[in-house]
Design goal:
Length: 247
């Protein structure tokens, strides 16, 4: 397994990025990993590595690069304190629009790698990263074949860069994994989001897991191993079908 660290120059600065692959030539399709609000930390690196072991080149950009140096944060300690005070300043430096803009440079970097198969990429996002992955796919529709969102929040709001507003531009297939009783993605919002996909005739599958918001992250207090392993099975099967089998 190969783990590289590189700097990708975006419109707004230098974005530290982790790249995972098996180290072999023509490794496989690329997947961009959009992190949660906890930022880059060991658990997220482990998740990106696990995804790569399934045969993908996985890019994990630090979308908090505009903030500067931070952490790594320990989510359990963060949730014990003032979450807004700790994460608010970091989250204020980015949004769906900026993440989509950053993706332009990420895609350009992928085009320089000889170990990436195909022109189409996948995207996966967790929590806030779910909406970012969808926005990126809507901004660069000819490049994204598939996007998975796990416990993504605020997918259909009245903000200009709400993920549901990108529905008419999407060409990617979506897998939407929601959490039960998620205040960041209530039933009314999920219906609004799915209605936008239906109207745009986007191919997607939406499921609600019997778990709390953040259940996929092994360093979260709400981590649910059973639900997480189910999520991994669904994710890998989804990307294998939409990316690997179409090469």
């Amino acid at each position: 397994m190969s783990h590289e660290q590189t700097i990708i120059t975006t419109r707004d600065g230098e974005c530290p990025t982790h790249v995972f692959s098996t180290g072999a030539d023509l490794n496989g399709p690329a997947i961009i990993f959009y992190m949660d609000a906890g930022g880059i930390r060991p658990a997220v690196l482990d998740m990106a590595q696990r995804l790569s072991k399934a045969g993908y080149v996985v890019l994990l950009p630090d979308i908090f690069y505009r903030y500067g140096a931070y952490g790594p944060l320990d989510p359990k300690k963060v949730f014990e304190g003032d979450v807004k005070a700790i994460l608010g300043p970091l989250m204020a430096t980015t949004n769906n629009t900026k993440a989509a803009e950053d993706t332009e440079a990420i895609l350009a970097y992928l085009d320089t790698r000889s170990d990436v198969k195909g022109n189409k990429v996948g995207g996966v996002g967790f929590c806030m990263g779910g909406g970012m992955a969808i926005a990126a796919a809507g901004t660069w529709p000819d490049r994204f074949a598939a996007v998975a969102s796990f416990h993504g929040g605020n997918l259909a709001t009245d903000t200009p860069d709400s993920p549901h507003a990108y529905a008419s531009k999407l060409k990617a297939e979506l897998y939407i994994a929601a959490a039960e009783n998620d205040v960041s993605y209530p039933l009314a919002m999920s219906e609004r989001f799915e209605n936008s996909l239906d109207e745009a005739r986007i191919r997607y599958r939406a499921e609600t897991y019997p778990a709390a918001h953040g259940w996929m992250k092994p360093d979260f207090p709400v981590y649910n191993e059973v639900a997480a392993e189910r999520g991994w099975r669904e994710m890998l099967a989804f990307f294998d079908r939409t990316l690997r089998e179409r090469l």
